[in-house]
Amino acid sequence: MARVALLGFLLAAIATLIAIVTSRPPLYVDHHRQLSSIRNIISQFRDPKTVADKTPHFWKYAYVIVNYHKTGHALSDILVKHINSNLNQFGRPLKRMHVQPRGNFNSQTKCSEMSFAPGTITVIGGPELHCSTEQLRDILLSHPDPKQPKWGVKIIHLVRNPFTMAVSNYHYHTQDPTPEPFVNWKNPCNEVEIGSHTLKDLASPLLSQPKMKIRVYGQVPKLQPIMKREDFKNIADDCYSLYQTRIGMENATFYEHLRTMDATEGLRLSTADKMNNIVLMAVDLIMFKRVRDLVKASNPNHINGDMEVKTIAMDDFIHQPGVSMYQVYDFVFKDLLPEETKITRSKTYEQSYFRERESHHYMNNHITYGKFGDTPALIEYLRGDPVFGPPLTKIEALLDEIMYEESLGRERMIAHAFN
């Protein structure tokens, strides 16, 4: 139907043009107005985002911030506030929405049930994205009200190097008092269940055949499995070998293990417990890339079906908060926010971040960076561990590959802006 309509409009435009050229003109004809009307007809079939490039169109997109444990839970709320505070000058903020991905899991599609209306911003912690690429595309790009125009979805994906993520998680839960009470009753070795499925069943088919090349240990990029079913089993077996197996620890809680065990053993125990978050991060990295590639291939003009993803590592936000915030501003606002404004506000955020981190560092139990001197040693230990080292190294390589692909052509510009 769209092609028929396009042909009709083009024929009408050509007929009008012929009439202008061949007809006997009256005493005065406004040729400029007639040609302008032809341009207007043709422009209807251009990418509306190109035509309205300098017009605020934020409310025609759905915005999503995805995070995982220790990858920016608190940061997500900060980003929502910064995005909305900068939107005030354009009219109104985005409506904040909430999703419970585990509670809204669809056992048939194997994806979290979600809906993203234009003009909203949603923060999601660890979404379950185990459905097909086409199903996930429909989840992300559809919206409840077909009468409300939706140009697409923009996703800010907050991730983290899996090794620093694991060590930060260990340090976080060993604090006294513990920030999260579940360590007083949870068995860290129990298999994670999502609906009627286990995470191993849901994630291993994708991670064992990711169909994308990664570079491990500096080798040439090649297709290789990231995690197999036996990797999940090895992690569980290692956990059970540590938990409540020592003399005097038969009835000890998970927290008591973390507080009394050698740091390397406690790290293995806590990493087994939160491995589901690292696995979900890897799954989502692959699925977002697949959907983005599918949308790009099927919709090259990005008309009413665009998908953009900005992957930002929490490690970068810790070390270069200004540059990372600039990436958020640039991703959301593009040219509608002047370059100088984006740089100035990013640097202001960086100053406030460092100031607050220094003044409240040891009072804020959510911050583990800089509090523990054994972090480098524990990262190296985990890299060399026969159970955790191989899968975490491949997830690290996957993350590096995705971020490199997204950063092409942008890193040099951002570095220049901050120098």
Gist of the model:
The chain has helices at residues 2-22, 31-43, 48-51, 73-87, 133-141, 162-173, 199-208, 229-242, 254-260, 263-273, 275-298, 314-319, 321-333, 339-360, 375-384, 389-407, 411-417; strands at 61-67, 95-98, 105-106, 111-112, 120-125, 152-159, 193-194, 197-198, 213-214, 222-223, 306-313. It is α/β, with parallel strands linked by helices and 419 residues long. The strands form 4 sheets. It has a 5-stranded parallel sheet, with helices on both faces.
Question: How would you describe this structure in keywords?
Answer:
419 residues, 52% helix, two-stranded antiparallel sheet, 17 helices
Can you describe what's shown?
- By secondary structure, the chain is of the alpha/beta class.
- 52% of the residues lie in helices and 11% in strands.
- The strands form 4 sheets. It has a 5-stranded parallel β-sheet with strand order 2-5-1-6-11, with helices on both faces.
- Residues 17-48 have low confidence and may be disordered.
Fold blueprint:
Elements: H1 2-22, H2 31-43, H3 48-51, E1 61-67, H4 73-87, E2 95-98, E3 105-106, E4 111-112, E5 120-125, H5 133-141, E6 152-159, H6 162-173, E7 193-194, E8 197-198, H7 199-208, E9 213-214, E10 222-223, H8 229-242, H9 254-260, H10 263-273, H11 275-298, E11 306-313, H12 314-319, H13 321-333, H14 339-360, H15 375-384, H16 389-407, H17 411-417
Parallel strand pairs: 1-5, 1-6, 2-5, 6-11
Antiparallel strand pairs: 3-4, 7-8, 9-10
